[in-house]
Amino acid sequence: MPTQLKYDTSLGNNKDLALIVAPDQVNQLTELQPEEQQYVQQQVQQEAKLISLNRYSHRLYILLSPDAKTEALKNEALRQAGHSLLKQLKTDKVESITLLDKTGTDASLYIAEGLCLSNYQFQKHKTKDAKPSPLQTITIADENLSGQEVQELANVLEAVYTVRDLVNEPHSHQTATQLSEQFEELGRQAGFKTEVLDLIRIQSLKMGGLAAVNQGSEEPATFSIMEWKPENAKNTKPYILVGKGVVYDTGGLSLKPTPQSMDYMKSDMAGSAIVAGVLYAAAKNKLPLHVIGLVPATDNRPGPGAVAPGDIITMHNGLTVEVLNTDAEGRLILADALSFAKKYDPELVLDFATLTGSAMRAVGKEGLVVMGTAGEEVMATLKQAGDNVHERTVEFPLWDEYKKQLESDIADLKNIGGTDAGHITAGKFLEAFTSYPWVHFDIAGTAYLHSEDSYRGKLATGSGVRLIYNYLSTLAR
Ligand code: BES
Ligand code: MN
Ligand code: ZN
């Protein structure tokens, strides 16, 4: 059950209420009794960020609005404050909280975002000892915000929940076919169109990369095409989102060592989940943009018939690739999707993939690795969108020198580079299959976390959805 986020300005008397207040406003709060006023001021002097008053019929929380260097950092501090508030609400077993901003800003939106994202849980496989969070409803009561603004945020957060659910679901419950069925279901719910190509179609389209990775699997590959095309679209050429849909990555015959590196490889479809999540949010919010999502999906296994190191395969665009490491499978399936994207004559193609351990080592969980050919303006707008939602991007270069590492003795390319800059050589590999403005997002560091990180939570984060939705919505303006 996703946490409900709604807009309602009627306050009533007995609702659990959180007031967002600037520290110097505290002495003007008409809501407080004299004794409460004294207590709150005392707490503010001690630099409390969250003050909690038990009024027996309800609780009153005072959230002190944070100070920060930039607008973006202030908004992030508010999301973090939402995370802290949730801890208190859980302790107090609050089921429904109303947010009321006294600072005359849109602070409630960010508090609600942090609160809602922190309240996510994945408990569907627990048959006992599930501990559902008491909090079910968040209400924004600010007169200066509109119901539409709140609903837009609610839809984006629902998309993040959906992405987290998809990524947390293990391969035992999510084959490539089941993943594409999920996309179809999301399309029905949100109003975008989904077409799923089966293995026969994939082979007849000569998607040799996707077919090769799928060779060692018992489950057929799928290729999903999602489309949101409103009549009032502002763009004539579509924006295309491509996502890596490796539902489980064993490494194939170049088997990953277990236990460490294989245990969470159910999350290797996180890129594909972002694509579906952004389409979901775009369709729900009726974003006036034509957006297409492309997802090649398969598991990567060493079963009979598996592609072997040294094999040569022919890709969708006709290039030949010497597969020297079957664990570098993401780039093989993405390359086919990138080449397929050309037929739409796209305005811009963005791809998302848990592609390399190297990207994770480069920036850890703090940023999304990006590189591309879309030019400075696109890069700057994406960077700004990343700062806005605190899903920050770090750009790496696609200098031609790196391409030397991909030279094969007997084919056009090989699928691995040397030991250094592995995230860049992976990007260079993908670039060979693009022929339009393009940006690649390596989300290996941010998609899935092993310990809690504020409102990003633990396990699947849904990282990328808020960033790309924010980016697209600036284009739609
Ligand atoms: N799915 C992995 C990358 C990955 C690693 C994602 C850790 C999340 C956490 C990808 O398919 C992979 O195996 N990449 C290899 C490439 C190498 C063989 C060139 C890697 O990064 O080691
Ligand atoms: Mn791999
Ligand atoms: Zn992988």
What do you see in this structure?
- With 477 residues, the protein is α/β, with parallel strands linked by helices.
- It folds into 2 domains: 4-144, 3-Layer(aba) Sandwich (Leucine Aminopeptidase, subunit E, domain 1), CATH 3.40.220; 156-476, Aminopeptidase, CATH 3.40.630.
- Helices cover 35% and strands 20% of the residues.
- It contains 13 helices and 20 strands.
- The protein has helices at residues 34-45, 71-91, 107-118, 147-168, 176-190, 199-204, 208-214, 270-284, 330-341, 357-363, 376-389, 422-431, 465-476; strands spanning 4-7, 17-21, 50-54, 59-64, 96-101, 137-140, 193-197, 222-228, 239-243, 245-249, 291-300, 311-314, 320-323, 348-353, 368-372, 393-395, 413-414, 438-442, 448-449, 459-460.
- Strands 7, 8, 9, 10, 11, 14, 15, 16 and 18 form a 9-stranded mixed β-sheet that branches. A 6-stranded mixed β-sheet has the order 1-6-5-2-4-3, sandwiched between helices. A 3-stranded mixed β-sheet has the order 12-13-17, with helices on one face.
- A hairpin with a 4-residue loop joins β3 (50-54) and β4.
- α11 (376-389) packs across α13.
- The longest helix is centred in the N-terminal third of the chain and has 22 residues, at 147-168.
- The chain starts with a strand and ends with a helix.
- The mean pLDDT is 97.
- It binds ligand BES, manganese (II) ion (MN) and zinc ion.
- Residues 246, 249, 268, 329-330 line the site of zinc ion (ZN).
